[in-house]
Task: inverse folding
C-alpha cells in the first residue's frame, strides 16, 4: 500500500502524541489493576478487529487516530503473558522442540509447510488461540509504529527536514501493513515485527 503523508496531518498527529504523554502515563498506572486492564484489552480488541484494521490505518495516515503508546505496551505485555502459556501447552501437545514458524495473514494463522500437519488443523479448530495470536501480532505491530511516531516527534524537535521524517515514517509503517510471523518452540516465542522500528532507526542514523 502506497502511503503519502500530508504535512498538516502528519505533524498534528506527532504533536498530539507528544502532548498526551503525561495523560498516557496516568492511564498506564491505573491499568495495572487486572480488571481495568482486561476491560481495556477487550475494548482495544474491538477497535482492531479484522473489520476495523483498514479503517484504523486510514485514520492513522490522516492523523485522526492517536495511538496511545503506553497503553499498547501494556496490552501487548498482557497478551504476551497469556500467549506464552498457550504456546507452551501447544509445544507440549505436539512435542515441539525445534522452532516452528507461522505467518499471520489477514488475521489467519498459517503454519510453515515443514510443521506438523496436525498443528495447522489444531490452529484452524481452536478459534480462541487463533484470535489470541492474531491480536498479539497486531499489538506488536502497532507498538512498533507507536515507537516510530515517538521518534519522529523527537526528529521534529531537532529540526530534521520534513521529507526525512516522512521517509522514516513510511519505512517504519511497513510493519503494520505487511504480514507478521510468529516463531516459537517449547522455550520461547517472538514476532518478526519486534524490533522493526529499532532497525530502521539504526539504518537512518548511519
Result:
Amino acid at each position: 500500500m502506497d502511503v503519502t503523508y500530508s504535512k498538516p496531518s502528519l505533524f498534528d498527529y506527532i504533536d498530539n502524541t507528544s502532548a498526551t504523554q503525561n495523560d498516557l502515563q496516568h492511564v498506564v498506572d491505573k491499568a495495572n489493576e487486572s480488571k481495568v486492564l482486561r476491560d481495556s484489552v477487550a475494548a482495544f480488541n474491538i477497535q482492531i478487529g479484522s473489520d476495523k484494521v483498514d479503517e484504523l490505518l486510514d485514520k492513522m495516515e490522516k492523523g485522526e487516530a492517536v495511538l496511545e503508546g503506553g497503553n499498547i505496551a501494556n496490552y501487548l505485555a498482557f497478551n504476551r503473558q497469556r500467549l506464552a502459556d498457550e504456546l507452551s501447552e501447544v509445544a507440549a501437545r505436539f512435542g515441539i522442540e525445534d522452532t516452528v514458524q507461522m505467518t499471520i495473514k489477514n488475521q489467519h494463522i498459517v503454519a510453515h509447510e515443514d510443521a506438523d500437519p496436525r498443528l495447522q488443523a489444531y490452529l484452524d479448530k481452536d478459534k480462541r488461540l487463533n484470535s489470541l495470536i492474531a491480536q498479539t501480532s497486531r499489538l506488536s505491530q502497532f507498538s512498533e509504529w507507536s515507537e516510530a511516531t515517538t521518534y519522529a516527534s523527537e526528529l521534529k524537535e531537532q529540526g530534521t527536514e520534513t521529507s526525512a521524517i516522512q521517509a522514516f515514517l513510511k519505512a517504519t509503517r511497513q510493519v503494520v501493513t505487511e504480514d507478521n510471523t510468529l516463531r516459537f518452540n517449547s522455550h520461547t516465542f517472538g514476532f518478526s515485527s519486534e524490533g522493526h522500528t529499532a532497525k530502521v532507526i539504526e539504518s537512518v542514523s548511519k
Observations:
- The longest helix spans residues 127-157.
- The first strand starts at residue 100 and ends at 105.
- The mean pLDDT is 77.
